[in-house]
Amino acid sequence: xxxxxxxxxxxMELVYIVRFSPEAKIDYSYDLIIVTERxxxxxxxxxxxxxxxxxxxxxxxxxxxxxxxEMEKYWYLLGIVAARLPSSSYT
Length: 91
Prior knowledge:
This protein is about 0% helix and about 25% strand. It is mainly beta. The chain has a domain at about 5-45.
């Protein structure tokens, strides 16, 4: 009996287990199409790959600078996870 041709009566439940084994650390996207006699359902299946994460300090203290006085402060950003991080900064 082919599980793809299985018919389900009204009020009966049917459970499928979707197993995912990625071959690379990228985003995956698939639309599972379920067809009944009256309707068609699309179940989106999404898996997110690695994301780059920056570890910012919780507080950056500039002290009490005078009004309209430009100040600079340097700190280190720590990149976490083995994903490529787009390099652009805003001040």
